[in-house]
Amino acid sequence: MELVLKPHDDENVVKAVAKKRRTKVEHIEPRPEDFPTRVQTPWKIGAHVSAAGGVENAIVNAAKLGATAFALFLKSQRKWTGPPLKAESISLFRKRLEAFGYAPSDVLPHGNYLVNLGNPDEEKREKSYECFVDELKRCEQLGLVYYNFHPGSTVGLASVEDSLAHVANCINRAHKETERIVIVIENMAGAGNVIGGKFEELAAIIFGVEIKSRVGVCLDTCHMFAAGYDIRTEEVQQFDTIVGLKYLREMHLNDSKTPCGSKKDRHDNLGMGQLGLPAFAHIVTDKRTQGIPLIIETPSHDVEDIWRAEIATLHALAADGGQAQTLEDGGAAVREAVKAAGKLSGKARKKRTRAVDSDAEDEFD
After folding, report:
1. Does the pTM of the predicted model rise above 0.85?
2. Which of 96, 175, 267, 301 is catalytic?
3. CATH code: domain of residue 230
4. 200 labelled catalytic
5. Which terminus of the chain is less hemmed in, N or C, by CB atoms within 10 Å?
6. Which UniProt keywords apply (predicted)?
7. Is residue 20 in a domain?
Protein backbone atom coordinates (compact mmCIF):
# COMPACT_ATOMS: atom_id res chain seq x y z
CA MET A 1 0.00 0.00 0.00
CA GLU A 2 1.44 3.40 -0.98
CA LEU A 3 2.08 5.85 1.82
CA VAL A 4 0.55 9.24 1.09
CA LEU A 5 1.75 12.19 3.15
CA LYS A 6 -0.78 14.80 4.03
CA PRO A 7 0.33 18.44 4.00
CA HIS A 8 0.66 18.61 7.78
CA ASP A 9 2.59 15.30 7.85
CA ASP A 10 5.09 16.66 5.31
CA GLU A 11 5.52 19.77 7.45
CA ASN A 12 6.21 17.65 10.51
CA VAL A 13 8.88 15.70 8.64
CA VAL A 14 10.61 18.92 7.60
CA LYS A 15 10.52 20.20 11.18
CA ALA A 16 11.95 16.94 12.52
CA VAL A 17 14.85 17.03 10.03
CA ALA A 18 15.56 20.67 10.86
CA LYS A 19 15.57 19.89 14.58
CA LYS A 20 18.00 17.03 14.06
CA ARG A 21 20.34 19.31 12.12
CA ARG A 22 20.26 21.87 14.91
CA THR A 23 21.08 19.32 17.58
CA LYS A 24 24.74 19.58 18.54
CA VAL A 25 26.89 16.50 18.91
CA GLU A 26 27.54 15.97 22.60
CA HIS A 27 30.98 17.26 23.55
CA ILE A 28 33.20 14.71 25.27
CA GLU A 29 36.08 16.41 27.06
CA PRO A 30 39.43 14.59 26.65
CA ARG A 31 40.60 12.87 29.82
CA PRO A 32 44.32 12.91 30.72
CA GLU A 33 44.14 9.27 31.83
CA ASP A 34 43.29 8.25 28.25
CA PHE A 35 46.64 9.59 26.97
CA PRO A 36 50.12 8.05 27.17
CA THR A 37 51.90 8.57 30.47
CA ARG A 38 54.46 11.35 30.03
CA VAL A 39 58.02 10.85 31.20
CA GLN A 40 58.79 13.37 33.94
CA THR A 41 62.31 14.76 34.20
CA PRO A 42 63.61 18.26 35.06
CA TRP A 43 63.82 18.92 31.29
CA LYS A 44 60.63 20.15 29.57
CA ILE A 45 60.56 18.54 26.13
CA GLY A 46 57.99 18.89 23.38
CA ALA A 47 57.12 20.03 19.86
CA HIS A 48 55.41 22.86 18.01
CA VAL A 49 51.92 21.41 17.69
CA SER A 50 48.80 22.37 15.77
CA ALA A 51 46.18 24.64 17.31
CA ALA A 52 43.70 24.07 14.48
CA GLY A 53 40.11 24.37 15.64
CA GLY A 54 41.07 26.39 18.72
CA VAL A 55 44.13 27.00 20.89
CA GLU A 56 42.76 24.55 23.45
CA ASN A 57 43.41 21.71 20.99
CA ALA A 58 47.17 22.30 21.14
CA ILE A 59 47.18 20.84 24.66
CA VAL A 60 45.58 17.60 23.47
CA ASN A 61 47.96 17.41 20.49
CA ALA A 62 50.95 17.82 22.80
CA ALA A 63 49.69 15.17 25.22
CA LYS A 64 49.32 12.68 22.35
CA LEU A 65 53.04 13.03 21.67
CA GLY A 66 54.11 12.47 25.27
CA ALA A 67 55.36 16.07 25.41
CA THR A 68 56.01 17.87 28.68
CA ALA A 69 56.16 21.26 26.93
CA PHE A 70 54.80 22.58 23.65
CA ALA A 71 54.72 25.50 21.24
CA LEU A 72 51.84 26.84 19.16
CA PHE A 73 50.72 29.72 16.97
CA LEU A 74 48.04 31.94 18.50
CA LYS A 75 46.62 32.87 15.09
CA SER A 76 47.69 32.37 11.48
CA GLN A 77 51.44 32.89 11.30
CA ARG A 78 51.25 34.32 7.79
CA LYS A 79 48.38 36.81 8.15
CA TRP A 80 48.50 40.21 9.83
CA THR A 81 45.19 39.86 11.60
CA GLY A 82 43.00 37.09 12.92
CA PRO A 83 39.71 36.64 14.74
CA PRO A 84 39.88 37.29 18.49
CA LEU A 85 40.18 34.32 20.82
CA LYS A 86 36.77 32.99 21.78
CA ALA A 87 35.84 33.08 25.46
CA GLU A 88 35.12 29.35 25.28
CA SER A 89 38.59 28.65 23.86
CA ILE A 90 40.29 30.74 26.54
CA SER A 91 38.37 28.95 29.28
CA LEU A 92 39.02 25.48 27.83
CA PHE A 93 42.72 26.25 27.31
CA ARG A 94 43.16 27.24 30.94
CA LYS A 95 41.19 24.22 32.21
CA ARG A 96 43.03 21.73 30.00
CA LEU A 97 46.40 23.21 30.87
CA GLU A 98 45.73 22.46 34.51
CA ALA A 99 44.02 19.10 33.90
CA PHE A 100 46.90 17.80 31.78
CA GLY A 101 49.56 19.05 34.20
CA TYR A 102 51.19 21.72 32.04
CA ALA A 103 52.43 24.87 33.75
CA PRO A 104 52.01 28.18 31.87
CA SER A 105 55.81 28.36 31.65
CA ASP A 106 55.83 25.03 29.74
CA VAL A 107 54.13 26.71 26.78
CA LEU A 108 56.00 28.62 24.08
CA PRO A 109 53.76 30.66 21.74
CA HIS A 110 55.56 31.44 18.48
CA GLY A 111 55.22 34.84 16.86
CA ASN A 112 53.91 35.76 13.44
CA TYR A 113 56.37 35.25 10.57
CA LEU A 114 55.50 38.58 8.94
CA VAL A 115 56.48 40.76 11.89
CA ASN A 116 59.60 42.85 11.38
CA LEU A 117 60.23 45.19 14.29
CA GLY A 118 63.60 46.11 12.79
CA ASN A 119 62.14 47.66 9.64
CA PRO A 120 63.39 51.24 9.15
CA ASP A 121 60.11 52.17 7.43
CA GLU A 122 57.99 53.61 10.26
CA GLU A 123 54.63 52.74 8.69
CA LYS A 124 55.60 49.14 8.02
CA ARG A 125 57.20 48.79 11.44
CA GLU A 126 54.01 50.08 13.06
CA LYS A 127 51.98 47.46 11.18
CA SER A 128 54.32 44.80 12.56
CA TYR A 129 54.08 46.27 16.04
CA GLU A 130 50.27 46.13 16.05
CA CYS A 131 50.37 42.44 15.10
CA PHE A 132 53.08 41.85 17.71
CA VAL A 133 51.12 43.47 20.57
CA ASP A 134 47.93 41.69 19.56
CA GLU A 135 49.67 38.35 20.05
CA LEU A 136 51.20 39.43 23.36
CA LYS A 137 47.73 40.26 24.64
CA ARG A 138 46.47 36.87 23.49
CA CYS A 139 49.22 35.28 25.59
CA GLU A 140 48.04 37.18 28.63
CA GLN A 141 44.42 36.19 27.96
CA LEU A 142 45.55 32.56 28.13
CA GLY A 143 47.56 33.13 31.31
CA LEU A 144 50.89 32.32 29.64
CA VAL A 145 54.39 33.49 30.53
CA TYR A 146 56.44 33.62 27.31
CA TYR A 147 56.16 34.87 23.74
CA ASN A 148 58.84 33.97 21.19
CA PHE A 149 59.47 36.03 18.04
CA HIS A 150 61.98 36.63 15.24
CA PRO A 151 63.75 39.99 15.61
CA GLY A 152 63.46 40.97 11.95
CA SER A 153 65.58 42.48 9.21
CA THR A 154 67.21 45.70 8.05
CA VAL A 155 65.65 45.00 4.60
CA GLY A 156 68.90 46.47 3.27
CA LEU A 157 67.80 50.00 4.10
CA ALA A 158 69.27 50.57 7.55
CA SER A 159 72.31 49.71 9.60
CA VAL A 160 72.18 46.66 11.85
CA GLU A 161 72.58 48.97 14.86
CA ASP A 162 69.54 51.04 13.87
CA SER A 163 67.37 47.95 13.33
CA LEU A 164 68.40 46.50 16.70
CA ALA A 165 67.43 49.80 18.34
CA HIS A 166 64.03 49.69 16.63
CA VAL A 167 63.42 46.20 18.04
CA ALA A 168 64.37 47.29 21.57
CA ASN A 169 62.12 50.35 21.34
CA CYS A 170 59.17 48.22 20.22
CA ILE A 171 59.73 45.85 23.13
CA ASN A 172 59.74 48.82 25.52
CA ARG A 173 56.45 50.07 24.05
CA ALA A 174 54.94 46.57 24.26
CA HIS A 175 55.91 46.21 27.91
CA LYS A 176 53.88 49.33 28.68
CA GLU A 177 50.82 47.88 26.91
CA THR A 178 50.99 44.51 28.66
CA GLU A 179 51.26 43.39 32.26
CA ARG A 180 53.58 40.44 32.67
CA ILE A 181 54.45 38.62 29.44
CA VAL A 182 58.16 37.87 28.92
CA ILE A 183 59.21 38.69 25.35
CA VAL A 184 61.72 36.14 24.05
CA ILE A 185 63.99 36.94 21.11
CA GLU A 186 64.94 34.03 18.88
CA ASN A 187 68.44 33.82 17.43
CA MET A 188 68.55 33.53 13.65
CA ALA A 189 70.75 31.83 11.04
CA GLY A 190 72.17 35.14 9.83
CA ALA A 191 71.09 35.00 6.20
CA GLY A 192 71.01 38.20 4.14
CA ASN A 193 69.72 41.24 6.01
CA VAL A 194 68.24 39.26 8.90
CA ILE A 195 69.34 40.43 12.34
CA GLY A 196 69.84 38.28 15.44
CA GLY A 197 72.31 35.77 14.02
CA LYS A 198 75.13 36.96 16.26
CA PHE A 199 75.05 36.78 20.06
CA GLU A 200 76.27 40.40 20.13
CA GLU A 201 73.09 41.47 18.30
CA LEU A 202 70.88 39.71 20.84
CA ALA A 203 72.84 41.39 23.63
CA ALA A 204 72.39 44.79 21.95
CA ILE A 205 68.60 44.39 21.87
CA ILE A 206 68.53 43.37 25.53
CA PHE A 207 70.79 46.30 26.43
CA GLY A 208 68.16 48.65 24.97
CA VAL A 209 65.24 47.07 26.86
CA GLU A 210 64.25 48.90 30.02
CA ILE A 211 62.51 46.08 31.94
CA LYS A 212 65.10 43.34 31.60
CA SER A 213 63.14 40.89 33.76
CA ARG A 214 60.62 40.71 30.90
CA VAL A 215 62.99 39.91 28.06
CA GLY A 216 64.87 36.73 27.19
CA VAL A 217 66.36 34.60 24.42
CA CYS A 218 65.30 31.42 22.65
CA LEU A 219 68.31 29.59 21.20
CA ASP A 220 67.58 27.53 18.10
CA THR A 221 70.27 24.89 17.63
CA CYS A 222 69.96 24.83 13.83
CA HIS A 223 70.13 28.63 13.68
CA MET A 224 73.18 28.72 15.97
CA PHE A 225 74.98 26.12 13.89
CA ALA A 226 74.12 27.83 10.61
CA ALA A 227 75.29 31.15 12.03
CA GLY A 228 78.70 29.64 12.77
CA TYR A 229 78.45 28.49 16.41
CA ASP A 230 79.61 24.86 16.46
CA ILE A 231 77.61 23.57 19.40
CA ARG A 232 78.91 20.04 18.79
CA THR A 233 82.21 21.00 20.37
CA GLU A 234 81.71 24.37 22.07
CA GLU A 235 80.02 24.93 25.41
CA VAL A 236 77.31 27.57 25.84
CA GLN A 237 80.00 29.61 27.54
CA GLN A 238 80.22 32.00 24.60
CA PHE A 239 76.52 32.79 24.91
CA ASP A 240 76.89 33.22 28.66
CA THR A 241 79.82 35.61 28.22
CA ILE A 242 78.17 37.78 25.58
CA VAL A 243 74.47 37.63 26.51
CA GLY A 244 74.18 35.83 29.85
CA LEU A 245 72.61 32.46 30.67
CA LYS A 246 70.07 34.21 32.90
CA TYR A 247 68.38 35.36 29.68
CA LEU A 248 68.06 31.84 28.25
CA ARG A 249 64.33 31.16 28.56
CA GLU A 250 63.75 28.52 25.86
CA MET A 251 65.40 26.44 23.15
CA HIS A 252 64.40 25.04 19.78
CA LEU A 253 66.03 21.65 19.22
CA ASN A 254 66.56 21.09 15.51
CA ASP A 255 69.27 19.25 13.62
CA SER A 256 70.75 21.00 10.58
CA LYS A 257 70.82 19.84 6.98
CA THR A 258 73.63 22.26 6.18
CA PRO A 259 77.14 22.62 7.64
CA CYS A 260 78.28 25.03 10.34
CA GLY A 261 78.42 28.63 9.12
CA SER A 262 76.25 27.99 6.05
CA LYS A 263 73.81 30.80 7.01
CA LYS A 264 71.07 28.48 5.72
CA ASP A 265 68.13 27.65 7.98
CA ARG A 266 67.33 24.06 7.03
CA HIS A 267 65.94 21.95 9.87
CA ASP A 268 66.58 18.21 9.92
CA ASN A 269 65.36 15.42 12.19
CA LEU A 270 67.33 14.79 15.36
CA GLY A 271 70.44 12.74 14.72
CA MET A 272 69.97 12.80 10.94
CA GLY A 273 71.73 16.08 10.20
CA GLN A 274 75.12 17.74 10.66
CA LEU A 275 74.73 18.17 14.43
CA GLY A 276 74.08 14.55 15.35
CA LEU A 277 72.24 13.09 18.34
CA PRO A 278 75.10 13.49 20.89
CA ALA A 279 74.72 17.30 20.64
CA PHE A 280 71.12 17.01 21.80
CA ALA A 281 72.01 14.47 24.49
CA HIS A 282 74.35 17.08 25.91
CA ILE A 283 71.55 19.67 26.02
CA VAL A 284 69.03 17.43 27.80
CA THR A 285 71.58 16.37 30.40
CA ASP A 286 72.84 19.89 31.15
CA LYS A 287 71.38 21.27 34.39
CA ARG A 288 71.41 24.77 32.90
CA THR A 289 68.62 23.80 30.49
CA GLN A 290 66.31 22.36 33.14
CA GLY A 291 62.84 23.82 33.54
CA ILE A 292 62.68 25.72 30.25
CA PRO A 293 60.70 24.66 27.14
CA LEU A 294 62.87 22.58 24.77
CA ILE A 295 60.88 22.47 21.55
CA ILE A 296 61.52 20.46 18.38
CA GLU A 297 60.57 21.97 15.01
CA THR A 298 61.86 19.16 12.83
CA PRO A 299 60.20 17.91 9.60
CA SER A 300 57.25 15.74 10.55
CA HIS A 301 55.67 15.07 7.13
CA ASP A 302 52.42 15.42 9.11
CA VAL A 303 53.16 12.04 10.69
CA GLU A 304 52.94 12.22 14.49
CA ASP A 305 55.15 9.17 14.98
CA ILE A 306 58.25 11.16 13.97
CA TRP A 307 57.85 13.75 16.70
CA ARG A 308 56.71 11.04 19.12
CA ALA A 309 59.96 9.15 18.48
CA GLU A 310 62.10 12.27 18.81
CA ILE A 311 60.44 13.35 22.05
CA ALA A 312 60.69 9.84 23.50
CA THR A 313 64.38 9.74 22.59
CA LEU A 314 65.09 13.07 24.28
CA HIS A 315 63.14 12.01 27.38
CA ALA A 316 65.13 8.76 27.54
CA LEU A 317 68.43 10.59 27.19
CA ALA A 318 67.43 13.05 29.92
CA ALA A 319 66.37 10.20 32.21
CA ASP A 320 69.54 8.10 31.92
CA GLY A 321 72.16 10.81 31.42
CA GLY A 322 72.73 10.19 27.71
CA GLN A 323 73.92 6.58 27.78
CA ALA A 324 75.47 5.22 24.58
CA GLN A 325 72.83 2.50 24.19
CA THR A 326 70.05 5.08 24.47
CA LEU A 327 71.74 7.17 21.79
CA GLU A 328 71.88 4.14 19.52
CA ASP A 329 68.31 3.04 20.19
CA GLY A 330 66.93 6.56 19.95
CA GLY A 331 68.69 7.28 16.69
CA ALA A 332 67.34 4.04 15.22
CA ALA A 333 63.79 4.89 16.37
CA VAL A 334 63.91 8.33 14.74
CA ARG A 335 65.33 6.94 11.48
CA GLU A 336 62.65 4.25 11.38
CA ALA A 337 59.88 6.79 11.93
CA VAL A 338 61.24 9.05 9.19
CA LYS A 339 61.63 6.07 6.87
CA ALA A 340 58.04 5.02 7.48
CA ALA A 341 56.84 8.54 6.69
CA GLY A 342 58.87 8.45 3.49
CA LYS A 343 56.81 5.51 2.24
CA LEU A 344 53.90 7.83 1.50
CA SER A 345 53.09 7.96 -2.21
CA GLY A 346 54.80 10.78 -4.09
CA LYS A 347 51.69 12.91 -4.58
CA ALA A 348 50.35 12.40 -1.07
CA ARG A 349 53.76 13.04 0.46
CA LYS A 350 54.19 16.28 -1.47
CA LYS A 351 50.78 17.45 -0.35
CA ARG A 352 51.24 16.47 3.30
CA THR A 353 54.86 17.46 3.86
CA ARG A 354 54.98 20.53 6.04
CA ALA A 355 57.62 23.14 5.30
CA VAL A 356 59.33 23.60 8.66
CA ASP A 357 62.75 23.84 7.06
CA SER A 358 62.84 27.58 6.67
CA ASP A 359 61.78 29.87 9.49
CA ALA A 360 60.69 32.43 6.92
CA GLU A 361 63.91 34.43 7.15
CA ASP A 362 63.28 35.93 3.69
CA GLU A 363 59.68 37.04 4.23
CA PHE A 364 60.31 40.36 5.91
CA ASP A 365 59.42 43.52 4.06
Report:
1. yes
2. 267
3. 3.20.20.150
4. no
5. N
6. Endonuclease, Hydrolase, Nuclease
7. no
Instruction: Confirm if 299 and 306 have CB atoms less than 8 A apart.
Output: yes
188-221 pLDDT tens trace: 999 999 999 999 999 999 999 999 999 999 999 9
- Alpha helices in the chain, H assignment, sequence order: 7-22, 56-64, 87-99, 122-141, 160-177, 199-208, 221-226, 237-242, 277-283, 304-320, 324-341, 346-352
User: Would 6 be classed as within a structural domain?
Assistant: no
287 three-state secondary structure: helix
Write out pLDDT tens, residues 128-168. 999 999 999 999 999 999 999 999 999 999 999 999 999 99
- For residue 254, give the nearest of 243, 240, 268 by alpha carbon: 268
- Residues 38, 50: Cα–Cα separation, whole Å: 19
pLDDT tens sequence across 232-248: 887 678 999 999 999 99
- In angstroms, the CA 220 to CA 224 distance is 6
Of 56, 106, 135, 186, catalytic: 186
Q: Is residue 113 part of a domain?
A: yes
Question: What total number of domains does the chain contain?
Answer: 1
247 catalytic residue (yes or no): no
pLDDT in tens, 16-33: 545 555 445 567 888 999
What pLDDT does 11 receive? 53
Residue 210 main-chain phi, psi, to 5 deg: -75, -45
10 annotated active-site: no
Residue 166 falls in the annotated catalytic set = no
**Exactly one of 38, 96, 138, 252 is catalytic; which is it?**
252
Note if 286 is an active site residue: no
Catalytic-residue membership of 267? yes
The pLDDT value recorded for residue 12 is 53
SS3 at position 71: strand
Q: Which of 102, 113, 147, 247 is catalytic?
A: 113
Domain span at 284: 31-352
Which residue among 56, 135, 201, 220 is the active-site one?
220
Q: What is the average pLDDT across 62-82?
A: 93
The pLDDT of residue 236: 79
The reply to whether 358 falls in a domain is no
Task: Tell me, yes or no, if 297 is annotated catalytic.
Answer: yes
Pick from 235, 215, 252: nearest CA to 288:
235
Q: Is 315 a catalytic residue?
A: no
